[in-house]
């Protein structure tokens, strides 16, 4: 493998590691904020996350850490608004459904993404990849899904949340490649639209779900401290989300999201003494087996493609699915790339993570 491939592999592993560490950190922070301090305004908090992310990127642009690269404004606006709506729908889904059904909603994102990419982008997923994803979903389902209480409104909201989340994550990957922009450039341009969308709908949505007014909440020094910490960590979460999807694929990002779910369950038991059963342990072990199989099969298939195509073709050929840690991945131009008792993934991190 050449120097370029080694650098790309290192960058991908770094992006995956940053995503896991920052996501687990923000889950712990938001769990303290929401569960212990009673600040349950998830959608409004997410709008603040995005606003702080935009301000941080604006400072980075001013310091010339990256170059501003404008492109199709309508695409950016549509992408930003769609991301904001998907986060709102995921929070609504959690509000109208049981935790068990909400977990099923998250699990449905992977097969939905596979179907959309197969139908509209003609991507092919081998039987081995499909089998490993099935094992992963089975494990996460065993570990997290408890009850499945159904209702019409909740089911419709979940369906809309799944569709918008899948489309937003696929767009995150395709926009970066189509317009040859980096994850930082895309995040910088889309953040204002995402933040504005959530800032407008957040207070109404949170008020509807919690029967509380975010502006009338008692903001003690402790609450303010955790809000500031959450916003600062969110900069890393949002950046790493775009970066991971740009460097790998939406499906790989969802696999990574379920790894975070298992880590959050484990850390919750070890650090916060959350209830933990043999069912949780069995589910996490099955999920880990699925992740290992997914990474292995992706690595094998990528190596086979490297043998079949020339180096010039390989540079412009996208990986059909990238493993969590791959020995060789196609190079993405300009680099980069978009939570529960829950995670997420939400296109952006969604405060749903801290609800379980």
TrEMBL record:
SUPFAM superfamilies: Multidrug resistance efflux transporter EmrE
Pfam families attached to this UniProt entry: TPT
Transmembrane segments: 12-33, 45-63, 75-94, 156-175, 196-217, 223-244, 278-297
Subcellular location: Membrane
UniProt keyword Metal-binding, yes or no: no
Keywords: Membrane, Transmembrane, Transmembrane helix
GO CC list: membrane
Keyword field contains Transmembrane helix: yes
InterPro entries: EmrE-like, Sugar_P_trans_dom, TPT_transporter
Residue stretches making up the Sugar phosphate transporter domain: 22-295
Coiled coil: none
Membrane topology type: Multi-pass membrane protein
Record-linked PANTHER family: SOLUTE CARRIER FAMILY 35
Protein name: Sugar phosphate transporter domain-containing protein
């Amino acid at each position: 493998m050449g120097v370029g491939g080694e650098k790309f592999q290192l960058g991908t592993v770094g992006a995956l590691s940053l995503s896991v560490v920052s996501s687990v950190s923000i889950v712990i922070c938001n769990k303290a904020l929401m569960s212990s301090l009673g600040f349950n305004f998830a959608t409004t908090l997410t709008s603040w996350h995005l606003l702080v992310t935009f301000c941080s990127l604006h400072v980075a642009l001013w310091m010339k850490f990256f170059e501003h690269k404008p492109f199709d404004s309508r695409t950016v606006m549509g992408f930003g608004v769609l991301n904001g709506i998907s986060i709102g729908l995921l929070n609504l889904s959690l509000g109208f459904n049981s935790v068990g059904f909400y977990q099923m909603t998250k699990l449905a994102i992977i097969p939905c993404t596979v179907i959309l990419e197969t139908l509209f982008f003609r991507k092919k997923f081998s039987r081995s990849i499909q089998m490993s994803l099935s094992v992963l979903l089975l494990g996460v389902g065993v570990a997290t899904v408890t009850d499945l209480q159904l209702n019409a409104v909740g089911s419709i909201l979940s369906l809309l949340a799944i569709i918008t989340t899948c489309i937003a994550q696929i767009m995150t990957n395709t926009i970066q490649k189509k317009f040859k922009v980096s994850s930082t450039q895309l995040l910088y341009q889309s953040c204002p639209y995402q933040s504005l969308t959530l800032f407008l709908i957040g207070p109404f949505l949170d008020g509807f779900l919690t029967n509380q007014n975010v502006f009338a909440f008692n903001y003690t020094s402790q609450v303010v401290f955790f809000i500031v910490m959450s916003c600062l960590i969110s900069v890393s979460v949002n950046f790493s989300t775009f970066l991971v999807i740009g460097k790998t694929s939406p499906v790989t990002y969802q696999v990574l999201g379920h790894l975070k779910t298992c880590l959050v369950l484990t850390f919750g038991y070890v650090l916060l003494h959350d209830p933990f059963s043999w069912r949780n342990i069995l589910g996490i072990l099955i999920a880990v087996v699925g992740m290992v199989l997914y990474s292995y099969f992706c690595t094998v298939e990528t190596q086979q493609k490297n043998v079949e195509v020339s180096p010039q073709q390989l540079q412009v050929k996208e990986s059909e699915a990238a493993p969590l840690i791959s020995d060789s991945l196609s190079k993405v131009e300009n680099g980069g790339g978009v939570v529960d008792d829950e995670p997420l993934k939400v296109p952006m991190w969604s405060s749903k993570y801290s609800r379980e």
